[in-house]
Amino acid sequence: MADNTTNAYTVGAPDDPLAPQWLNKGDQAWQLTAASLVALQSLPGLVVIYAGLVKTKWAINSAFMCFYAFAAVLVVWVVWGYKMAFGDHMIPGLVGIPGPILSSHTELSQANLVTAAIKPNFNSATMVYFQFVFAAITVILLAGALLARMNFKAWMIFVPLWLTFSYTVGAFSLWGGGFLFQRGVIDYSGGYVIHVSSGTAGFVAAYWVGPRLRQDRDNFKPHNVLLALVGCGILWVGWNGFNGGDPYAASPDAGAAVLNTNIATAVSLLVWTILDITFFKKPSVVGAVQGMITGLVAITPAAGVVAGWGAIIIGLFSGSLPWVTMNILGKRLAFFEMVDDTLGVFHTHLVAGVTGGFLTGIFATAEGCAAFALLTPGGAIAGNGKQVGWQLAGALFIIGWNVVWTSLICLFIKYVCRVPLRMTEEELLAGDDAIHGEAAYCFADDAEVSTLHGRGLHDEEAGVLSTESAEANKSKEV
User: What pLDDT digit, counting tens, does each position of 136-182 carry?
Assistant: First the structure.
């Protein structure tokens, strides 16, 4: 690994506030660009994906869950979360000491990473924001399992608690110098920290929250597939920053990670589509989207440490194994019927994340690991067969931690805070109008839709209409 602390682009003097000696303007520009690409995956990417894949009456609620999570995570992150994930040890190997990272001195100083031989040539504020967008998208991905029935007030409490007690521990253990990092577990860009954790926590939280209305489970056709496809395009392209930003430099490894990301995703989408045609006789657009997502997820732990042919193999498995769990096992096993996972995050994130992590243990190359300054010499193909076992151990830890803490948080909200996890039956029937007093679409100025803000009905009228809407839907159900 080349020494990343000096290069031809470094200018200025140590005391020059505009161009300190350690600053590489190319790395700084790429890191901020990569962070912005990841932020766009959440806003508007997942916002419009969720809004498009749910029924019309849930479009606003689903989108607003994303917006709220993005804002709440940022506040938690800068006040105490970042240092829990990347600071000094509080519980050795497991989590850092919570605290704020808001001073000008800290924000303007050089970023420091204890987990890599690379010394980032950009400032701490850039690192904090880059890591924030990963934390935010994790919570938003988790929300995909809870759409169309979780009480919004419960969600407001859940987000900061889950980020504090679950996400930060996973991040510290793998990225902050924790015990999984010390054992050489490879998670290049969040296959475990982000996707296995969100897939596990989403599924567990869905169990505690409870299911949607029976009529919604039986008939939950997306109300706007084209809108969802726009979001999916943003998600795919944004993943260039998701994986390409993790070498913390505009380096050759960043380019390799971007190429491998797109290779695996393309192969996964094609495999999923072929399986849909073979078994269901039609190429499903929503199915292709699932294949795209599983490809992105599976390549994430491996992106910069495998060769292109390894990315192809990962794409083959990510397009097939989650397809089997979703379309065959998911429809036959009572285990999946018990839990209402709205968008199937168990399959697209947990299954795909574990698949990618396991294959990383096989196909990680010695050159790729060296380029990323990892402790491990590579995977099984590099003569390091025990890496496969460590990859499985890392996945099991993330799964176990999230099962326990997601359950504890849900029980705390329900029994200590005394906030119901699930909406009332009336709210479930009415949707956005009852919960937010707003509707996703208004096609006429005099349309009878309530709104709490701007030019609309008075609050009393909005309440009446919400009740009438619920009663009308209840009559239809009968």
Answer: 999 999 999 999 999 999 999 999 999 999 999 999 999 998 999 99
Of the candidates 427, 337, 469, 449, the residue with the CA atom closest to the CA atom of residue 148 = 427
Interval 243-259: pLDDT, tens: 999 999 999 999 999 99
Other Cβ atoms less than 10 A from the Cβ of 334: the count is: 6
Residue 303: per-residue pLDDT: 96
Dist CA 88 CA 288 (whole Å): 43
Q: What letter does residue 190 receive in the DSSP assignment? A: S
Specify the 3-state DSSP secondary structure of 239.
Answer: helix
For the residues of 455-467, what is the DSSP string, one character each? SS--HHHHHHHHH
Q: Which fold has domain 27-416?
A: Ammonium transporter fold (1.10.3430)
Q: Which of 19, 145, 1 is nearest to 10 (CA)?
A: 19
Rounded Cα–Cα distance for residues 22 and 1 (Å): 18
| pLDDT top residue among 321 and 120 | 321
Confidence of residue 464 (pLDDT cuts 50, 70, 90): very low
What residues have CB less than 8 Å from 257, skipping those under 6 apart?
188, 189, 243, 244, 246, 247, 303, 304
Whether 64 contacts 436, CB under 8 Å: yes
Domain spans of the chain? 27-416, 425-477
Tell me if 342 sits within 8 A of 146, measured CB to CB. yes
Alpha-helix residue ranges (DSSP H) falling in 120-196: 124-143, 152-162, 168-175, 179-182
For residue 87, what are its two tokens?
A: 């600071």
Q: What is the model's pTM?
A: 0.89
Q: In this structure, is the dihedral angle defined by the CA atoms of residues 430, 435, 441 and 446, taken in order, positive or negative? A: positive
Query: What pLDDT digit, counting tens, does each position of 311-338 carry?
Result: 999 999 999 999 999 999 998 888 888 9
Distances (CA, A) of 121 to 6, 199, 249, 471: 9, 33, 8, 61
